């Protein structure tokens, strides 16, 4: 759960078996702060986290704390698009991030061993790696195991940003993508178009699909059945994408909802190809897990 400042209580469990009392705020800018050090810092960090003012800009904490403050935003309703039926992904404080990242893998019910390093890129922040480890290890829900779904990638060209010259950090040309799951890709696009007029989504791809899948709504249909565990698949994609790129978190001017499935990804970091590679890798993962049940 998020508090009124958009902060989330660490989902970690302390050695005495009780829930960790630290609060963490998601921020795309904590990537650098986190990767600098994963060394837990003493208690001052906790005080400063809980004093975060609503709407404050991302501010680094004490050096080595491994945490940063984000932009909470009052009245945040993170699931306004209802895109994530699994609820909000658990988040963790620096200490539990370090703790979780010590585990190297897990074993599926059919005995198959999954090594985290096979799927989770080491280039991601420690926090993203911990959240992905948790999402990978969580047992599937019955609905998710039963339903067959697709993950789609739309590009929103009107939201792309051109690069600014002379600045080295985070100012490269950036494309905007919407990545989500659906049991009917073309119907989903239609729904979105009728609800929000502000963007012109172009379907770049969906998976699974055959080579040469046509992507024109009204003239195309999916020729391959969807895959099970598509909710898990979507969550994994989102957790990685918000670390590789930046999750769009403002309220939309037109439809007043937060398009939380949208991500800005720098072309320098691969743009569309990088997004597709992420979606494909997590599809392979959920297929392996689904086969084990
Ligand atoms: Zn914690
Ligand atoms: Zn909108």
TrEMBL record:
Task: Describe the location of the Bacteriophage T5 Orf172 DNA-binding domain by residue ranges.
Answer: 151-282
Q: Where is this region: Disordered?
A: 21-86
Low complexity bias: where? 25-40
Q: Which InterPro entries match?
A: Meiosis_regulatory (IPR053006), Phage_T5_Orf172_DNA-bd (IPR018306)
Xref: Pfam families: T5orf172 (PF10544)
Q: Which residues form the signal peptide?
A: none
PANTHER family per UniProt: MEIOTICALLY UP-REGULATED GENE 113 PROTEIN
Name of the featured protein: DUF1766-domain-containing protein
Q: What is the lineage of its organism?
A: Eukaryota, Fungi, Dikarya, Basidiomycota, Ustilaginomycotina
């Amino acid at each position: 759960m998020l508090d009124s400042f958009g902060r989330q209580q660490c989902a970690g469990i302390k050695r005495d078996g009780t829930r960790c009392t630290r609060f963490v705020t998601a921020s795309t800018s904590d990537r650098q702060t986190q990767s600098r050090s994963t060394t837990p810092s003493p208690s001052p960090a906790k005080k400063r986290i809980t004093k975060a003012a609503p709407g404050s800009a991302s501010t680094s904490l004490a050096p080595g704390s491994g945490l940063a403050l984000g932009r909470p935003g009052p009245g945040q309703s993170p699931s306004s698009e209802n895109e994530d039926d699994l609820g909000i992904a658990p988040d963790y404080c620096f200490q539990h991030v370090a703790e979780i990242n010590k585990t190297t893998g897990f074993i599926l019910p059919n005995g198959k061993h999954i090594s985290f390093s096979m799927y989770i890129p080491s280039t991601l922040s420690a926090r993203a790696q911990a959240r992905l480890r948790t999402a990978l290890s969580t047992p599937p829900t019955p609905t998710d195991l039963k339903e067959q779904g697709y993950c789609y990638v739309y590009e929103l060209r009107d939201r792309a940003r051109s690069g600014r010259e002379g600045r080295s950090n985070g100012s490269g040309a950036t494309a905007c993508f919407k990545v989500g799951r659906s049991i009917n890709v073309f119907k989903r696009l239609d729904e979105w178009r009728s609800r929000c007029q502000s963007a012109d989504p172009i379907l770049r791809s969906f998976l699974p699909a055959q080579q040469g899948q046509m992507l024109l709504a009204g003239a195309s249909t999916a020729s391959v059945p969807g895959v099970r565990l598509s909710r898990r698949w979507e969550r994994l994609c989102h957790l990685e994408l918000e670390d590789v790129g930046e999750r769009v978190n403002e309220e939309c001017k037109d439809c007043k909802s937060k398009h939380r499935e949208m991500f800005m990804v720098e072309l320098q970091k691969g743009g569309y190809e990088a997004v597709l590679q992420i979606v494909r890798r997590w599809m392979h993962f959920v297929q392996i897990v689904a086969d084990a049940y």
